[in-house]
Backbone:
């Protein structure tokens, strides 16, 4: 089973949900379509959506909610 | 009792600024910092540094227990909160005082009073200071709101009493829209601030943002004239100057005297700023809110008055009376500050952290640079994007703009994108040179000119 990764396009802090009192964008096992938002990156007090650039099933997240991430770092793993 | 050892509960360029002011007065400095700021300029310049937590501000610069523990351990007798973070948190000011330290700023009670926008409006009205036409305090429900807006007229703003920084505001153009937006605004304010209380204000169109700097010692208050900060993007100031290009001498005096009256009515202590909207069309000014802290744009006031505002904050907090009478504060020349942010104006101001690979700073007469930068320093992604401020002084406004232009030509910050290209374009813009701007001008200008900013 081929796997792909969704990478962070920015350095910052990764969030899995739009705000603390809302459910996560995606959970393990969820289907993902191209353009789906899977999380937010906070950089310098601004928030940027992370969108999937390919479709598949979300196998697992590779970083925790609120983890600091670097640009280019894998955030989640997708299966075909 | 004057301050002996000052803890700086902030980061970045303002921490550097506070260290410099303290050092001039022989005050020892303790810089608290997150793990991400261990190599910061402020940490390097301070006499002592204490790490208070990991990178996210919630776990470091907003961690009250860790900050107070660091203060206790280091033997600091005073704390300067800078701006942002905990600077206008009344409970924090109370905690600092309860721990037996001096909070460099007004009392928790004053912060609480002026931080409540409805209460601050009431203080202003009682002091005879004009406020934006609006509801008489909070509006209880939609019916009361409709009655208030019928008197005020449209367009009207629905504002959250607990809002701030441009959040919690809706604008209605007519009654139908007002009826639709009011419940939304209430629900949003409840969700965002835990307080659904709303009030109504008239929208002043084509307003300028002017603000008055005051200094008080709890007995006496003086003003240090006004600043104008009309060039804003998303309600964030990017270019600030003193004095305002728009005010006549009569209006200037009336404005500054109103700020003194308002601050004196709450026996203000420390440095504070009273923000107003100024209506070019009518010459009227309206108080909007008071900031009970030092502001990012304080250097322009320092330059036209010759007063070290951060230094005076430390003296007042240490118990000294104000050193100046009002008639000793004079206004000389014109000063302009631009905010150099780690944002790319060619990519819709996308913030971008990174490493500063080279740094060349402008100099010569009338040029000041306040920043967190040094060659090789890294800019973490965790905090706001302000890198530093380029400030110039000229004999008059056009002289200052020309100096800004040549200073910007000398400036080189390599390794990351900055907002310098925006200012290199603005210094040549006719409306900017004529001072013919308002708070929405820059956003309109960017719609057609953003492409030039590569």
Residues:
């Amino acid at each position: 089973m081929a796997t792909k990764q969704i990478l962070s396009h920015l350095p910052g802090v990764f969030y899995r949900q739009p705000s603390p009192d809302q459910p996560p964008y995606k959970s393990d096992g969820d289907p993902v379509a191209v353009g789906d938002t899977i999380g937010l990156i906070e950089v310098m007090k601004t928030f940027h959506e992370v969108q999937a650039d390919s479709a598949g099933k979300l196998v697992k997240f590779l970083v925790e909610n609120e983890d600091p991430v670097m640009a280019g770092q894998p955030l989640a793993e997708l299966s075909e | 009792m004057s301050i002996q050892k000052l803890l700086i509960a902030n980061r970045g360029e303002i921490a550097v600024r506070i260290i410099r002011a303290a050092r001039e007065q022989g005050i020892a400095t303790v810089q608290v910092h997150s793990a991400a700021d261990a190599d910061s300029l402020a940490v390097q310049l301070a006499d002592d540094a204490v790490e208070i937590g990991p990178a996210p501000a919630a776990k470091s610069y907003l961690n009250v227990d860790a900050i107070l523990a660091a203060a206790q351990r280091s033997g600091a007798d005073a704390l300067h909160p800078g701006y942002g973070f905990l600077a206008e948190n009344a409970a924090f000011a109370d905690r600092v005082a309860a721990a037996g330290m001096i909070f460099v700023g007004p009392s928790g009670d004053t912060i609480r009073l002026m931080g409540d926008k409805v209460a601050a409006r009431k203080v202003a009205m009682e002091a005879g200071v004009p406020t934006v036409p609006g509801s008489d305090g909070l509006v209880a429900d939609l019916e009361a709101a409709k009655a208030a807006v019928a008197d005020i007229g449209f367009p009207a703003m629905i504002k959250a009493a607990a809002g701030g920084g441009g959040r919690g505001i809706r604008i209605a153009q007519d009654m139908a829209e007002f009826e639709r937006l009011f419940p939304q605004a209430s629900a949003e304010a409840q969700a965002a601030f835990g307080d659904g209380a709303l009030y109504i204000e008239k929208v002043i169109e084509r307003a300028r943002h002017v603000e008055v700097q005051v200094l008080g010692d709890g007995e006496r208050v003086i003003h240090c004239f006004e600043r104008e900060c009309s060039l804003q993007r998303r309600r964030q100031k990017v270019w600030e100057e003193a004095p305002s290009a728009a005010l006549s001498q009569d209006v200037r005096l009336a404005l500054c005297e109103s700020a003194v009256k308002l601050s004196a009515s709450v026996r203000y202590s420390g440095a504070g700023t009273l923000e107003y909207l100024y209506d070019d069309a009518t010459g009227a000014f309206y108080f909007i809110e008071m900031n009970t802290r030092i502001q990012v744009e304080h250097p322009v006031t320092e330059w036209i008055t010759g007063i070290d505002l951060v230094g005076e904050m430390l003296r007042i907090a240490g118990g000294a009376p104000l050193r100046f009478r009002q008639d000793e504060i004079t206004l000389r020349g014109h000063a302009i500050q631009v905010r150099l942010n780690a944002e790319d104006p060619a990519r819709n101001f996308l913030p971008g952290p990174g490493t500063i690979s080279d740094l060349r700073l402008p100099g010569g007469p009338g040029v000041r640079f306040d920043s967190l930068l040094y060659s090789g320093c890294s800019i973490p992604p965790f905090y706001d994007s302000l890198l530093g401020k380029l400030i110039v002084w000229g004999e008059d406004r056009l002289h200052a703009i020309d100096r800004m232009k040549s200073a910007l030509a000398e400036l080189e910050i390599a390794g990351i994108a900055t907002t310098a290209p925006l200012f290199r374009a603005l210094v040549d813009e006719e409306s900017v040179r004529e001072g013919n701007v308002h708070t929405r001008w820059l956003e309109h200008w960017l719609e057609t000119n953003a492409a030039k900013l590569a």
In short: Chain B is about 35% helix and 30% strand. Chain B touches chain A through 14 residues (CB under 8 Å). Chain B has a mean pLDDT of 95.
